[in-house]
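Example S7 (structure tokens).
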């Protein structure tokens, strides 16, 4: 058999595997284009440490939280979004580091939960916003977590609202594929306590998961890495059985060091988790939520607003009490 024919036969034999595992819409791997993850110099934890150098909690919060790579969240508070994402990714690129960004501005955001309600004024406003978000990143390497909560809870939504939301997410993925070729986008898939694996696989697929690099789990939650990994594998089993492909997934480990006590909104006694490049069957374990930032006016964060940095909560989370 000629070398050319052998090469052709090998390629043909590999085709079913390529269709079964569709890990990315892009050829580029941003993790290989950089020398580690970017530490946000303007995170809420870092700002608090800088403003309170004499506080007895500052050293621990600085060492254990503020200097750990974690995501920056972008929404209506970010100003001109293309400028904001461009500046953030550009700063990381200058340091040869990989930035982690969260897009959190979908129309009717947190529609059923309410603690983080808001978002763009309309589906068309969101389409414009996310197009500028992707354009700001452009060709520089980045990782984006797309719209936490968006697929987790449909309980109070009509079918028309669900269709509208899924169309917005599909449109967002189209923009990243068009404008940000070196970005891995993970569609948020909630957590194991929100929807069963078959339901989440269907929601992901209908919202355009084929276009994404993968999906994210446990964002802003406390559930163990092991439980999330089992759930992610179950979602992939459903994707493979129903639609003929699988996707990598990442787990937010920022606050799951003690697991969950069944409460999702500022529970007491939680602990930071350990971020790493890979682990436990997930593609990456990442800090997506900043430890110490409030989930809303609830639990040990009573009186706070979602996203507000609470130093006492952060301090206790370092030690797990």
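Recovered sequence:
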């Amino acid at each position: 058999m000629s070398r050319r024919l052998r090469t052709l036969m090998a390629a043909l034999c590999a085709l079913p595997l390529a269709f079964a595992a569709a890990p990315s819409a892009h050829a580029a791997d941003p993790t290989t284009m950089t020398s580690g993850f970017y530490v946000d110099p303007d995170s809420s934890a870092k700002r608090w440490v800088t403003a309170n150098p004499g506080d007895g909690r500052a050293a621990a919060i600085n060492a254990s939280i503020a200097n750990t790579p974690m995501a920056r969240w972008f929404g209506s508070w970010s100003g001109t979004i293309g400028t904001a994402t461009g500046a953030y990714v550009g700063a990381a690129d200058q340091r040869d580091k990989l930035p982690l960004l969260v897009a959190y501005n979908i129309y009717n955001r947190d529609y059923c939960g309410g603690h983080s309600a808001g978002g763009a004024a309309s589906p068309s406003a969101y389409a414009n916003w996310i197009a500028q978000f992707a354009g700001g990143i452009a060709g520089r390497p980045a990782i984006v977590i797309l719209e936490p909560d968006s697929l987790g809870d449909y309980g109070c939504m009509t079918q028309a609202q669900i269709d509208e939301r899924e169309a917005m997410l599909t449109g967002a993925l189209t923009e990243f594929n068009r404008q940000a070729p070196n970005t891995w986008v993970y569609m948020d898939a909630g957590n194991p306590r929100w929807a069963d694996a078959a339901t989440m696989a269907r929601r992901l697929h209908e919202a355009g998961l084929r276009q994404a690099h993968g999906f994210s789990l446990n964002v802003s939650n406390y559930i163990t890495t092991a439980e999330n990994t089992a759930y992610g594998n179950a979602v992939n089993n459903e994707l493979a059985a129903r639609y003929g492909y699988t996707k990598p997934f990442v787990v937010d480990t920022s606050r799951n060091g003690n697991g969950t006590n069944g409460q999702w909104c500022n529970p007491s006694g939680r602990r930071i988790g350990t971020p790493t490049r890979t682990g436990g069957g997930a593609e990456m374990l990442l800090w997506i939520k900043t430890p110490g930032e409030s989930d809303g006016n609830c639990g040990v964060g009573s009186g706070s607003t979602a996203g507000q940095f609470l130093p006492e909560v952060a301090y206790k989370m370092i030690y797990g009490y």
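Notes on this example. The radius of gyration is 20 Å.
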